[in-house]
## 1
Amino acid sequence: MRIAIFDVEKPDIVFHLAAQRLPWLAEIQIRETVSTSILGTQNIIRLSQMCGVQQCIFSSTGKAARYFTTEVYAASKKISEWQFAQAAQKGDVTYGMVRFTHMLENSSVCQQIDNKIQQGKIVNVHAPHRYVTAQNVSEASHLLLNALVLCQPGKLKFLTVRNLDWPVETLEVALYKIAQSGKDIPIYFQGLIPGYEEPCFLGQFDWDSPTEINFLTNALEPHFIDSSGELFVAEVSPFCSHTLTKHLAGLQILLADSDLPEAQIKRSLGNAVKEIGNSIFSQALTHTLLKILKWGANPKHFEVEEISIKEYRDVLELILQELYGRIDQEVLMRSQLTPNEVDDLIEILSLLPSVQQEVAYLRAVSRIFREFNLGQNPVEPFPDNIDLSNVSGVSIA
């Protein structure tokens, strides 16, 4: 079925910008959000292919860089990205994508603060020390246009702004806007609400190159900096297309049932992201997964931020399941972990009841290290002469 605007306009280029833009509202209007993002994307792809569109560019979000998420807004965007990546591998349309962060002139945060100030009402922010990255509309429009130039047939490349400058505290934004208004308006800390509760997983970022960390990509997405030095160009991580197709069909059936509780749609969405995410980890290099585990389960981070490792249970389960039985001497060398770091990981991960088998595997590997008298050099990387082919009590692939 064709949409009239495609028949009338016969576009050569399509920019797909339609989506629920408010994470908190996505948690309330679950059916509408998932339908708009996923079925809407499916329709855009189908119509682009049917109507001879040359290029189709998708507007995504930095929240989709997460390896795993249960938040409806971010999860539905991740599914949409995978839909575009799947479509890019077939057909005659060339697909591209951008990932945006908060828009200074058009962000929901700034609009909410402006509206409250204009109405003379209390300005509410989540909490102190909550930071956001930002870009302006000019940067956003340039990203979309550059995506037309840099996209390639057969694969999905996406663009982000390379230099997002320092993150800005939302409290600072609110205080600045109140000061500019000249009004005497109080601020209320409302706490985190659904859609904004997931803490940042530090294993998302590539700490091998800390000066080039980009909050809108993750460590498993191949990337480079364009010739201008202004754009970060990356690719969506390889995933199982069959798994995506299966979950898209399942979600479509659920969305068609108007009597189905929306909570069930959210659970199915989360299951889809988890299973497809697992297919990404299964294709990742083992030493990279071990580095991600090291970065993301750093005990010092939990101590400083005063958070529990249980906050990251889902993503850590996925990583540990894929590491199980895959660690060998080359992996250890390339991951550059020290004996002390492995022991620190074991200690913090042992707090998760759901990964005890994987923790036992790491303990067995660590025991081999100690048998080689590595305790005398606990801060040096592991050498390359350790035989891990037969760790006692644990199978090594």
Note: Residues 392-397 have pLDDT under 50 and may be disordered.
## 2
Amino acid sequence: TKPIHPAITKARVQTHIILKQQCDKLRFMAMHDKLTTLYNRHYLMDEGIRKISRARRKEEPLCAIMTDIDHFKNVNDTYGHLMGDNILKAVAVSLGSTERKEDFVARYGGEEFVILLENCSLDNAKIKAEKIRESIEKLNVENVSVTSSFGIALLSDKHTDFDMLIKDADEALYKAKETGRNKVVVY
């Protein structure tokens, strides 16, 4: 066989590098929310199934926290969507900065976020949610204050799938909103 010319080898290597970079970018885009760079809802649903399976297999607790920025529609209506985007990004940083390596934070949609806490008791999940709530309450995005309400659900035998666990966390979130907002409620 004839030896390959060095210029061809170099071109192949460069093409391989470019294709790998493009694949990595597409993989990131498929799994992450563009605005906040947190994981997106689509990936959350897949990861939630895996985390429930792992928690049951290892017989460890799994908590789901759902949070929603209080009065977010008023922010958009009063200050504009650019301000709303800035607040979403700031809240995402607060949510992400408090996570353990095994914690999973995703943008659920709009101004709602979900945090999955593996091997975390309900008491520890409440402590964690309260710390996050306090960090968000301290945010001041261009002189606009922010608060958020939280609902927590602990995986139990009644949760036959991930949707049921999220539904219970969402129900607790709505109780937090109905009873004054800027608080943590457990299902």
Note: The mean pLDDT is 93.
## 3
Amino acid sequence: MDRRMEALKILKKYRNQDYYYLGEGFSGVVFHDNRSVYKVHIPLANNSYGESDGLLYLREKLDVFKNSKYFYEVDLFKIDDIYILRY
């Protein structure tokens, strides 16, 4: 299964609705649902940059911007051991 279809399958587990493909890069595949953007972290290859460490760091910092009038709400969660960044 290709990354795009895998990411869409994971998002459908989160919420069974329509998602629209935006693109993909090294670390993941990006969709939107007309309300939020979802980056499903499925890397092309393993790397030595500590991507999951970076995601865990981000999760620790999410409350810094909570209820801010200057930043969009950001959420990080897991489905089937795959991180999804929602903003």
Note: The mean pLDDT is 83.
